[in-house]
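Backbone shape codes:
***
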Amino acid sequence: MALSSRLCPLLRLRRGAAQSVCQLARAWGSRGHCGARAFLGSEVIGNTVPFKRGLLFSALSYLGFETYQVISQAAVVHATAKVEEILEQADYLYESGETEKLYQLLTQYKESEDAELLWRLARTSRDIAQLSRTSEEEKKALVYEALEYAKRALEKNKSSFAAHKWYAICISDVGDYEGIKVKIANAYVIKEHFEKAIELNPKDATSIHLMGIWCYTFAEMPWYQRRIAKVLFANPPSSTYEEALKYFHRAEQVDPNFYSKNLLLLGKTYLKLNNKKLAAFWLVKAKGYPAHTEEDKQIQTEAAQLLTGL
């Protein structure tokens, strides 16, 4: 309706303009006051028919261009509205834990140039890869597929905190298939993108949590991997449990109880620091966290096992 209402006056304008041009051309071709002699002189004009047709064609061409602009603008508005609608559906399915339905929805738009669609595609591809019923072969293909979507999202919008976050996550996943040297080398890139995501959106608890995981991972790196890292790199990545704890607490401050795994890792980090009292406090919270996803159920089980061992 909006497009029709804009086009109708324009089409009426075209008809009115065409009539005015014809009238003007007839006036220029007459011998009256506004005739060809008054304009340029009949000796120069000669046969005025081609001139009239040229003038009419020019006017209609201009009005046709105006129509094209209206249609183009309407098409852009429509495309934007469609993307927004898809994103709403995608976010609803994600919050509902409908991982497979979400993947089916978003893969219809895998050729999209929209960064918001692409990073969501990366996320859902990774989520499908992590399902227990996904085969190892399928998981590997999905991990690389997710990285490609995240990379494209970042190329389209370097100011998207989510694109930086999911690019870092996907690079980390790919490292599991490319050996210890690549995994350690990628750690620098991963940290850089997590830090950029936090800089762009300091209120995103997930990015802060992931920076905590980065610290925790290098704090508990086995001795043989540390030795390899020192051989391969002059300054290998390193961190401490204290630094990891700082990020996990910061994530909770930004968004309390936002993620069961953050609660679990708070408990595990306190265990590493030999603080059993605080470890138990956070593990109890992790165990009692409502299980919305398969991951939540796994975390409940792990928390219960850790509490049994205290």
Summary: The first helix runs from residue 2 to 29. Residues 1-46, 67-78 have pLDDT under 50 and may be disordered. The CA atoms of residues 27 and 33 lie 9 Å apart.
